[in-house]
């Protein structure tokens, strides 16, 4: 996400935020995609958060997603698992939904990796 900011002061359950980024189509046209989200659950002990999309300009009607940090036994590493329940926007098939989220998750993954590298060098 290029832009994200809290819409309601505070932290924890019920917190809402606005996220946006610029998307470029295969033909080279740029457009801003945005979503307003609400935090449904945040469990620090389980390293998990769940959010729902309240409004967006992509076309999602109902969308709830969970991010969870899951330990990998070998080497003490971990992975981030993302799951969702929802319906794709009208006119989208499963493949276009996977392509959209694969691109988004690759971008998020790079940002997390960059943040971790900056933190470990401090």
From TrEMBL:
Top-level lineage group: Eukaryota
InterPro entries in UniProt: LFS, Polyketide_cyclase/dehydratase, START-like_dom_sf
CDD domains reported for this sequence: PYR_PYL_RCAR_like (cd07821)
GO molecular function terms noted in the UniProt entry: protein phosphatase inhibitor activity
Protein name, per record: Lachrymatory factor synthase
């Amino acid at each position: 996400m290029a832009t994200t900011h809290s819409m309601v002061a505070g932290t924890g359950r019920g917190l809402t935020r606005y996220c946006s980024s610029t998307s470029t189509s295969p033909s080279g046209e740029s457009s801003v995609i945005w979503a307003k989200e609400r935090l449904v659950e945040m469990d620090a002990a389980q390293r998990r958060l769940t959010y729902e999309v309240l409004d967006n300009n992509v076309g999602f009607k109902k969308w709830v997603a969970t991010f969870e940090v899951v330990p990998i036994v070998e080497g003490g590493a971990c992975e981030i698992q993302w799951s969702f329940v929802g319906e794709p926007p009208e006119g989208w098939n499963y493949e276009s939904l996977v392509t959209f989220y694969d691109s988004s998750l690759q971008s998020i993954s790079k940002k997390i990796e960059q943040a971790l590298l900056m933190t470990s060098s401090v």
